[in-house]
């Protein structure tokens, strides 16, 4: 007997919770793997764009989830994060100066993460990690925007941003799974 994928009453494969978890995992995993490749290498660009696709999809699904639950700040934060992922993937991964564009756009992570963290929907440690991640990305971006040096992709500030981002994505994934 053939095994069929679980479908919902609307005929979709999987639930929005399952899709959100897959997309959040995709966001984190492809971003981390891409960070180990040479800056600007084709493989890194593909992995980073797949990561951005994950954030775009997860951000949209999480925005809908939070809107339905009446958590408008978190919904707006996830829309902001989805928009940021689109902007970075379109403007930051192609052509000359792609790193400079990516660093410049990193300042836009802060508003979305603060909006998400302001809403009491996940554990305090997740919300704190989100706020710290957004702050670290913004500091890294402003350090470049206000200075004359080249973008520092090995900055300790960036490493802290990614560490807090990892903690945040794990927390979001656990929260989404527990809500289902």
Number of strands: 0
Q: Looking at the structure, what is the overall shape?
A: globular
- Helix percent reads over 70%
Taking Cα atoms only, what radius of gyration do you get, to the nearest Å? 17 Å
Mean of all residue-level pLDDT scores = 86
Question: Domains counted in the coordinates: how many?
Answer: 1
Structural class: mainly alpha
Give the CA-CA distance, first to last residue: 29 Å
The ordered string of helix (H) and strand (E) elements is HHHHHHH
Report the major sheet: none
Number of helices: 7
What low-confidence regions span 5 or more consecutive residues with pLDDT below 50?
A: none
User: Strand fraction band?
Assistant: under 5%
Describe the structure.
- The relative contact order is 0.12.
- The model has no long low-confidence stretch (mean pLDDT 86).
- The longest helix has 27 residues, at 42-68.
- Helices cover 73% and strands 0% of the residues.
- It contains 7 helices and no strands.
- It has one domain (16-179).
- By secondary structure, it is mainly α.
Could you outline the blueprint of secondary structure elements for this entry?
Blueprint: H1 16-35, H2 42-68, H3 72-91, H4 98-105, H5 109-118, H6 124-145, H7 156-179
Helix pairs in contact: 1-2, 1-7, 2-3, 3-4, 3-5, 4-6, 5-6, 6-7
Structural descriptors:
180 residues, mainly alpha, 7 helices, 0% strand
């Amino acid at each position: 007997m053939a095994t069929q994928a679980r479908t919902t009453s609307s005929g979709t494969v999987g639930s929005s919770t399952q899709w959100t978890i897959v997309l959040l995992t995709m966001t984190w995993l492809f971003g981390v793997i891409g960070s180990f490749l040479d800056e600007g290498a084709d493989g890194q660009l593909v992995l980073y764009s797949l990561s951005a696709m994950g954030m775009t999809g997860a951000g949209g699904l999480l925005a809908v989830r939070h809107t339905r639950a009446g958590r408008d700040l978190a919904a707006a934060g996830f829309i902001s994060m989805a928009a940021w992922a689109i902007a970075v993937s379109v403007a930051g991964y192609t052509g000359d100066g792609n790193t400079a564009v990516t660093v410049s756009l990193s300042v836009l992570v802060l508003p979305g993460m603060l909006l998400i963290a302001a809403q009491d929907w996940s554990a305090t440690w997740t919300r704190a990690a989100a706020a710290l991640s957004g702050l670290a990305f913004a500091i890294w971006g402003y350090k470049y925007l206000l200075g004359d040096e080249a973008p520092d992709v090995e900055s300790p500030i960036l490493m802290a941003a990614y560490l807090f981002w990892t903690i945040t994505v794990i927390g979001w994934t656990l929260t989404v799974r527990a809500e289902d």
